[in-house]
Fold each of these.
Amino acid sequence: MVNKDEIRRRVIEALKNTYDPEIPINVWDLGLIYGLEISDDGVVHIRMTLTTPGCPIANMIVYCVVEAVQGVDGVRDVDVELVFEPPWDPTRMTKDGREKFKEIYGYDIVNEYLRQKGLGEGGG
């Protein structure tokens, strides 16, 4: 039996060091990770998406996620399920991701997204 909480913490750290090459924000803070499960024997199942279904580097991003998580102590194997429902949108970003985006691009992507959708200002 593995310590799932400890492995989860380490996996999240690994994901925070795995970047979408087109957006210099890690996959965790971008909100691309929809689910993270760890079995009793150390197999990590990740449900993730991309910012767009037509992403030309999809295979590369998934490969980088698998490589990063396989390197985590206590992980026996990694299974990544790439999903596009529900579709990704900026509201899925973490607070850190949102702040990093604003630092890089000069605007709050969540507020802009909500404004364009007619939903008003976002929190944070």
Amino acid sequence: MACWLEWSPEAIEDIESIASYIERDSPWFAQIVASKIVSTAESIPLNPEMCRIVPEIGRKNIRERFVYSYRVIYQIEPERVLVAALTHSFMAAVCYNPSFRGLRGIFEKLTLYVKN
């Protein structure tokens, strides 16, 4: 199933934030990470169901692919693949820890894109 790739505004914001954060220590590595995230996302439409289902959501059309320590979370639709969010893989574990209640909203923005 080949379709086209689209980035949500939130995912674009996420990649910019990731690059800005890394750039504080290493502009060179920030460029490498951002480029790798983009190239990995661009390969997803070739075989979108290859990656695992996001466990926090549990829907077959919401999947993730790991790039370094980041999760590229995307939604498979009939004509496109929508990159919905990018998160650090550590955040998934934190979301389920009761002492980190403020971080549970990381996956809330995905509900904007999940179709019933």
Amino acid sequence: MNFRRKTSSEEISGFLDQGTHLTGELQYSGTMQLDGNFHGSISTNDTLFIGEHAIVHADIKVGALEIHGRVFGNIEAKRRIEIHPTGRVRGDVPTPVLIISAGSVFDGRCQMAGENQEESLTDNRSATQKGMDETH
């Protein structure tokens, strides 16, 4: 697996290896790499790497996420989600940046608007609907 590390601060601080099964609530600081099976919930403001052999059934809230394995559940990322060619995701993903590589699979909904953008999108939809109502 080739994980990009932009700075030395992104060194792996936790690891769940292939063949390991864990159920529960995972909270951590730093960068975690999961290559095993995980069921539950994951929460961090930092980075999570999901390895090619990983199977994750969880609701995930992270700062940033790279997916090379399989994820079933909703993912909320503050900075970005990147789904690599071996990655498979089934769930909804609110995030400001979503990168889906050729060959990957994403089955869900993506919301890329921030809080302020969401209000303006709602206002635009209302204005558009009002304009449509007036023309019909």
Amino acid sequence: MLNFASYMEMLMVICFGISWPINIVKAWKARSTKGISLLFYTFILLGYLFALVGKLVLIFYYAPVPWYETVHWYVMFFYVLNTLMVATGVGIYFRNRSLEKQVERYDHRTESCSQRETH
């Protein structure tokens, strides 16, 4: 029964994880933070981190039983993979925000120059 529960947990994490690569590519190409919520990313990231901490607590609780007998490696693998993908999404958010600020500074300078020329 424990294996069945682990498989169900792994499938849940895989289903969540399917969307992250799509989201990462879309955000990278968009070069914009529009439609992206940093708060959403933060809560998802915290959720994955809490799950990983829970798995580590189980590993230490059942020590000296080997970790791979306590927590199935494939479940841990997908938690770590999803955590890395969400962290990548957060990194892309900050990259896109930086790009937007560069564009704003450029537009502001261009606007200032054109105003001077008209006066």
